[in-house]
Amino acid sequence: MASRTSPARPVGAVTRGTTNPNRLRRMDRWIAAAHGPELRRSSDPVAVDLGYGAAPWTAVELLGRLRTAAPATEVVGIEIEPARVTAAKPYERLGLAFRHGGFEVPLPDNRRPALIRAANVLRQYDEGEVAAVWARLCGRLAPGGLLVEGTCDEIGRRHVWVALGVEGPRTVTFATRLGSLERPSDLAERLPKALIHRNVPGEPVHAFLRDFDRAWAAAAPYASLGARQRWIKAVRDLSADWPLADGERRWRQGEVTVNWAALQPRTG
Predict the structure, then answer these.
(1) Which of 183, 188, 156 is nearest to 172 (CA)?
(2) 222-241: per-residue pLDDT in tens?
(3) Torsion of CA 204, 205, 209, 211, to 10 degrees
(4) Contacts of 88 (CB under 8 A, 6+ apart)
(5) What is the DSSP string of the chain?
(6) Are 159 and 149 contacting, i.e. CB atoms less than 8 angstroms apart?
(7) Model pTM score
(8) Which of 53, 74, 159, 160 has the lowest CB atom count within 10 Å?
(9) Do the beta carbons of residue 237 and residue 256 sit within 8 Å?
(10) How far apart, in whole angstroms, are the C-alpha atoms of residue 67 and residue 172?
């Protein structure tokens, strides 16, 4: 992205722009399930794909997936690199548009988005910059809006994201393709910037992944029933000690969502 100081320019820094079709499917499905009711209730259900990258696939896919839950949803892809916006323009259609911008989230007619999805955008930033970016993005949300910010691998097998409302962070979700998982702590490499440097002894996210690995090991006998049953058993046992914010219906998808307060970094 361009200069972070000039008010005439988009706010942020240019990312590598790496993207692939279907990369964000796990995140999209979770958003549709968790935030679909709010999008249906919204009088202006506009969602932003912030920093969609060198190709517009993720914005195109987001529109299709959200409309399964809220048919009136519109999607605006926002990119700070002008050439990427130009390349995306041929994909525009009713309900899908692309604009030049950054963390200021420019929308026409001063619209406020019901959803901002920022995937693989903050990975290049310093940890100390994350809180200010979160606050800025949450400040652009409509009442009842949701910010989803996180990281995934190149083909969408492993994701970790934080969900935030206007009041701040709410939950952290870990999602994976179960057939490719050796142990839950493999997801540590996809922790978002706010947590990735906190995966060290003494930090809550490290303790959570340690306990998850132990529960996964204890659930090894369930592997004969398949990776999904082993995951469900491990997560059910994990729920005895950690405040999970979802249930078995989501666990079956290879997901587990934890209250942010249980994983937030220690201060000092």
Answers:
(1) 188
(2) 999 999 999 999 999 999 99
(3) 20
(4) 52, 55, 56, 59, 77, 79, 98
(5) ---SS-TTS-SS--------TTTTHHHHHHHHHHHHHHHHH-SS-EEEEET--SSSHHHHHHHHHHHTT-TT-EEEEEESSHHHHHHHGGG-BTTEEEEE--TT---GGG---SEEEEESSGGGS-HHHHHHHHHHHHHHSPTT-EEEEEEE-TTSSEEEEEEEETTEEEEEEEEE-GGG-S-GGGGGGG--HHHHTT-STTSHHHHHHHHHHHHHHHTGGGGGG-HHHHHHHHHHHHTTTS-B---HHHHTTTEEEEEHHHHSPPP-
(6) no
(7) 0.94
(8) 74
(9) no
(10) 24
- Residue 42 has, within 13 A of its CA and on its CB side, a CA count of 26
Question: Residue with structure tokens 């060290």?
Answer: 200
- In the chain, the largest separation of any two C-alpha atoms, in whole Å, equals 60
pLDDT digits (tens, 9 = 90+) for 66-88: 999 999 999 999 999 999 999 99
How many other CB atoms sit within 10 Å of the CB of residue 108?
9
Q: Which residue has the tokens 């994201």?
A: 161
**Sole residue written with tokens 């993005």:** 137
